[in-house]
Write a structure and sequence with these properties.
Blueprint (H helix, E strand, L loop, with lengths): L1 H36 L10 E6 L3 E7 L5 E7 L2 E2 L5 E4 L8 H17 L4 E7 L6 H6 L3 E6 L2 E7 L13 E9 L5 E7 L14 E3 L6 H13 L3 E16 L2 E12 L11 E8 H5 L2 H5 L1 H14 L7 E6 L5 E6 L2 H13 L1
Parallel strand pairs: 5-6, 9-13
Antiparallel strand pairs: 1-2, 2-3, 4-5, 6-8, 7-8, 9-11, 10-14, 12-13, 15-16
Length: about 350
Amino acid sequence: MNRIIRKCRFISFIELNAMYMTCFITLLAAHCLLVSSCPEDKNPLNQVMSVSTSLSFVEEQVITPENEVEQFQLLAAVEDSYEGVVVDMNDHQPLDSEVLTSLLRASMSQWKQKGKRGVWIKLPIKLSNLVDAAVKEGFRYHHAEPDYLMLVHWIPETVDTLPPNASHRVGIGAFVMNSKREVLVVQEVSGFFRDTGVWKLPTGVVNEGEDIFAAAVREVKEETGIETEFVEILAFSQSHEEFFRKSDLFFVCMLEPHSFDIQKQNLEIAAAQWMPIEDYAAQPFVKQNKLFNDIAQICLAKSDKDYTGFTPLGTTTSSGKANYLYLNNHDMVKLLTSSTDQH
């Protein structure tokens, strides 16, 4: 009796396995039929089958046309809006150059297959040892900041359309005049005007993310201690090859003083005072230098109320960011403000 039971169990096991095998063969046949009918670019054999990500790497398993499974470790990247990818290596632990080379070659191959164009690598200063390895793989410098270097590479064999680095530096000059027709002027400790005896308007550079009018108020406060309120942009100039091959935009800003007791900054300013505007404009250097003379004449015209500058109007960009539109017509400012209020 026991032999009969064991025999029946064995027969049942064989039948069950046969059933499973039949189902597997049926599913496999259906899968092969699906694969053969797909276009090459949609073929599941060429698609990523599984992806696991971390802050530093992406591991991809790909089935090759030879039905072999290959696993690649790639650099983690975020797609941009221009068919490119951005790799931020700030979260990477220290890497060896050979490891980066291997990762770059595997990653570039995948990005090329996916039709990507520009590749951006943000390399923090702690990984500066990897610059040489990246350059040897075809990357070039784009720009540098105090804490990172940006490297770029154009993949297609077409014209490189990656946008260049920022081309301009933005500076301000502050025209501040009191009720006595005296203008706020300074002499600098260093730079081109050092020990020249020339009295000049307070000047400075606009910081990243800082509005022009805010920079003018800040610079006057830092250099002279005078509290001011922005009024207008009187004029601006553009020059080239000024600062490490960058172009320069310089905005002459009119400010209204709200304090008058000068407390100069000793680090940058040798002297500061209120000077009659006519005396400022009559300085030999100002008279002989056309740009300085033109600015002085504009300031004189504004002091006589014969000149209208550019007034800031708060607005927003298409993406919703706040910014300022500078207009030289007070009536137009009122008109636009009224129109905005009605909406």
